[in-house]
Amino acid sequence: MRGRPMNGKSTPDLFSVGTPTLGVEEEFLLCDPQTGRPSLRNSEVAAAGRELGISLQLELTRCQVETSTSIGNHIRDLRDQLCESRALTADAAARVGCQLIAVGTPFYDPPVDEITQKSRYQRMAGQFGAITEGVMCGCHIHVGVEDRERSVQIINHLRPWLPTLLALTANSPISGGRDTGYASWRYVLFGRWPSSGPPPFFESVGHYEDAVAAMLETGVILDPHMVYWDVRMSDHLPTVEIRISDVPATVEETMTLATLVQALVGTASAAITKGEVAPAVDQELLRAACWRAARDGLDGRSLDVESVRLLTAHQAVRRLVDHVEPALTAFGEFEQVTASLDKVFSNGNGAIMQRRQLARRSRVADVIDECARRTFEGCSSQGGSEL
């Protein structure tokens, strides 16, 4: 995907109002560095992180931690933050005998008693039983949108592009020591939650709020934070939150994802301002497209929900880039995104690289070593140590 002229398209004045604010959350797996098996020490890692000056969030399972960037206007401001947070979190993990890896699911099943000892998580385990036992590490992109009515309309505009974002970032093909047959096994596991998957098409913010209220009333969720739709309004920030993706294997892939999401939101907002209505994509068709993306990832085919035909995943990504090209150009990111996607198309994303390594070496331990290396790929050394 070489950088190219805009084929006669002019950058709309609608993008001149400014770049939407942006923040990134990444969830990571903690492993035993000797065995590669999940290590249930997130509380200790978080404590070590505080000593290093980084605040880590505890996730549902004890072998996960989450990092978050500050909110900024420009994607380039996030690279150093993402590199630093990965490095500091890895340092904190190493201090308590763990290894930090950016993968969507662990390579082996976690030990028993994996649920983090927080009252909310314990209530979730009591209410939802065995579906709380899966370990799933995702990446959540927050894009600032102050008006809730506009947020709902933006969500509608983003729905058709969710499968493409998943295919691009798929990074969890191996579970239980074997290839699952899915590029994103995390997405399949996450689908067990009753509030997960692509959101419905919403007529208004009232429609959205009624749907959340119904889930609360019926016990489908315990609190608004359990609205696990692939894209949603944040329950505590004035943002639209895109959460369909596996945690990307590298910082560069996270940067590319965040840039595309920011451009999607900007493009949707511009369309709304012009009075354009989002396509009301059939919910079951969209679910099918997301399943296909989880299975094939970037190395297969993609179901285009508007034409209802199969494309290669590479073609689907190119369609996405064409769709947001005016926004990418206005934000000054078109050349960088196309160069990064060229690299991913040539070398493979997380799922492709894991499978390639497994086929080459036939040992999961070698895959784990490669994933640990790629977690810091492209980042300079921190604290004098080589990453």
What does the secondary structure layout of this molecule look like, with pairings?
Layout: E1 22-31, H1 42-52, E2 57-58, E3 64-68, H2 76-95, E4 99-101, H3 119-128, E5 138-144, H4 148-158, H5 162-169, E6 174-175, E7 178-179, H6 185-190, E8 196-197, H7 205-218, E9 228-229, E10 231-233, E11 239-246, H8 251-273, H9 283-296, E12 301-304, E13 309-312, H10 313-330, H11 334-347, H12 350-361, H13 364-374
Parallel strand pairs: 8-9
Antiparallel strand pairs: 1-3, 1-4, 1-5, 2-3, 5-11, 6-7, 10-11, 12-13
Distance between the termini: 29 Å
What name is given to the CATH topology? Creatine Kinase, Chain A, domain 2
Major sheet attributes? 7 strands, antiparallel
Low-confidence stretches: 2-12, 381-387
Radius of gyration, CA atoms, in whole angstroms: 20 Å
Structural domain tally: 1
Order of SSEs:
EHEEHEHEHHEEHEHEEEHHEEHHHH
Helix content: 40-55%
Instruction: Give the second-level CATH assignment, the architecture.
Output: 2-Layer Sandwich
| Category from helices, strands and their pairing | alpha+beta
Q: Give the averaged pLDDT, no decimals.
A: 92
List how many beta strands DSSP finds.
13
Q: What is the molecular shape?
A: globular
CATH class: Alpha Beta
Report strand %: 5-15%
EC number: 6.3.2.2
Function: ATP-dependent carboxylate-amine ligase which exhibits weak glutamate--cysteine ligase activity.
Organism: Rhodococcus erythropolis (strain PR4 / NBRC 100887)
Family: Belongs to the glutamate--cysteine ligase type 2 family. YbdK subfamily.
